[in-house]
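**User:** Hello, beginner here. Are you able to go through the protein record under this note? It all follows right here:
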Amino acid sequence: MSFTLHSGTTPVLVSMPHVGTAIPDSLRHRYVERAWATEDTDWFLDRLYAFVKDMGASLIVPVESRYVIDLNRPSDNQPMYAGQNNTELCPTRFFTGDSLYREGMAPSDEEVRARVATYWQPYHDALQAETQRLRALHGHAVLFDAHSIKGELPWLFEGALPDMNLGTVNGQSCDPSLRTKLVQVFASQSRYSHVVDGRFKGGHITRHFGRPAHGVHTVQLEMSWRAYMQETPPYVWHEERAAAVTPLLRSLVQTMIDWRPA
């Protein structure tokens, strides 16, 4: 199985599509050696958000690295952010713009389709089934897509990201009242800088599954690594930072659990 799914009892499903680090042995030799360390992983998010299961939320976590396939891209490989540098469905570049693969070893279109069938489709089928299960139980579902990224990546964006980057596809992926309540959580604290629908408005999962009119509400949080870990190699967990940010993350998840559509 290319992911693990914990089915909870509340309306909330937490997805973290970029936390996987595995590169299959059959593919490993085709990547440049630097890629084996999977530096562009959303590091430690499964550890950071481990509390959500105790809160009753569902949790889905992939095994394979985004270098194998990006679960937060559309299967037709359309760019998420037109006019800006993007990594593909099966990425060929690091977040620095450097090549992931050895010369001539990037996947063909046929191989990309095979990876979609092997890794992408099962994950998305599970997202679909779990959100529908939660909607049937509670009358609605909230899909929280959790991400993290290095705070400064010139190839992808200018300057430094805020600590917390909430994405609701400009308010289209969830009910306005849920968006307002989540914004209030950030506004009630001053330790972490934040923005709503800035550079990261929500990837494919947020855009595709967010159907407020049909009872499925989606939200993405892109968190800068500096909020909970060391941003320079070796990329290691920072106990004090993680402990400090956890109450904020708990508050966000609790807000999603408690929220009900009007």
About this structure: The longest helix spans residues 109-138. The chain has a mean pLDDT of 96.
